[in-house]
Amino acid sequence: MTLALNSYQTMAVGILLYYLGKFLKARIKFLRTYCIPNPVIGGILFALLNLALHQSGVGAIKLDTVQQSFFMNMFFTSIGFTASFALLKKGGRDVLILTIVCAILVTLQDVIGVGLAKVVGLHPLLGLCAGSVPLVGGHGTSAAFGPFFENMGVERASAVAIAMATFGLISGSLMGGPIAHRLISKYNLHSNETNVSAGGPGFCGDVEAAVVPMVPEKFMLATGEILLCMGVGTYVAAFFKGIGLVFPFYISSMLVAAVLRNTADHSSSLDVPIPEIQTMGDVGLNIFLSMALMSLRIWELFDIAGALSVIAVAQVILMALFTYFVVFNAMGRDYDAAVEVSAVCGFGMGATPNAMANMSAVTAVHGPSTRAFFCVPLVGALFIDFINSSVIMVFTNLFK
């Protein structure tokens, strides 16, 4: 027995799953503690239902996810608007160093993913789906690159990436605090500040953001700029394809958006309404992520679970060693550096909300860190996704 949903019905179910996830997260502490996104909760529950139907032989729910690519492109185009060189420069030396360090981390994650994939007999691009795609990239990048790799002939890419992204969220939250505490105790570090850090204990990215007045005209401008970049991006994608480079189509839209943002930074006549663009991006992310997770075919992972476990353990070891020895030393070996170590564990294995939660847990015990709460959101929420996508594409074109 098969229940087939058309594209509009699939999208409607995706919305319901988002709010189911929100409902459950408000009532289950585990989901709040590890900052599991609402669409991930609802989407995985739907995927588990489909798994039960498949394994029992009762039937299946067939989905039409054609709308998913539009919302995915909307989200990643909004990310392109955050790639501001002026903002990076304003952040100063610490932001630049943290950005470079995290770019190295992204590269190492992919080296380990691809290298171990070859050792355990998996496709090297499937190794990317166990590298920076799900770890630094999180569920959003996983849901985007999974189908892209599958179109290149890499089977089970989406399932692997989503599974590793979920593993990363939990492991990144578990390891960040202990590593930071170890550094603080070993080197007798302490905060020299008396003000209360941003976020506070338990911050998980789901609290109400600061109220910013939203103007309908600016929403129209934001929507128009996103759609414009998506349209122009198709020509850029065609150019890349013409010269033999393999890119997901949304990368081109991101590049166009980045050009528009940096042009606006140096022009008083061009307005880029960032709050409205980010809101549109969040809408796109939540809808496309719900649809991506609900279409996950979990049963396809059963025969490669052992191989994935080897890569997963190696990625955890890399993160622990890299943050302890590289991030801490690069950021100055002080208290702020220790707090930033916990953050890199968070967004290096999961997402920026995990980084904020890790920092809040550390500063709640040891004192505030203004530098960490300034640098980490800039790097984790603005620059690292852009860098990650670029590194992934380099590896993709090397091992396609």
Give me some keywords for this one:
400 residues, mainly alpha, two-stranded parallel sheet, 2 strands, 2% strand
Report on the architecture of this protein.
A two-stranded parallel ribbon has the order 1-2. With 400 residues, it is mainly alpha-helical. The chain has helices at residues 7-25, 29-33, 38-56, 68-80, 85-119, 124-128, 138-151, 157-186, 216-242, 249-265, 274-294, 305-330, 335-349, 352-366, 370-399; strands at residues 2-4, 60-62. The protein is built from 15 helices and two strands. The longest helix has 35 residues, at 85-119. 52% of the residues are buried. The chain is globular.
Rg (CA only): 21 Å
Compute the average pLDDT.
Answer: 86
Specify the helix fraction band.
over 70%
Question: Main β-sheet: number of strands, strand sense, barrel status?
Answer: 2 strands, parallel
Query: Distance between termini?
Result: 38 Å
Series of secondary-structure elements, N-terminal to C-terminal: EHHHEHHHHHHHHHHHH
The stretches of 5 or more residues where confidence is low (pLDDT under 50) are 195-210
- Identify the overall geometry: globular
Could you give the count of β-strands? 2
| Beta strand % | under 5%
| Secondary-structure content class | mainly alpha
Number of helices: 15
Q: Enumerate the strands of the largest sheet in spatial order, edge to edge or round the barrel.
A: 1-2
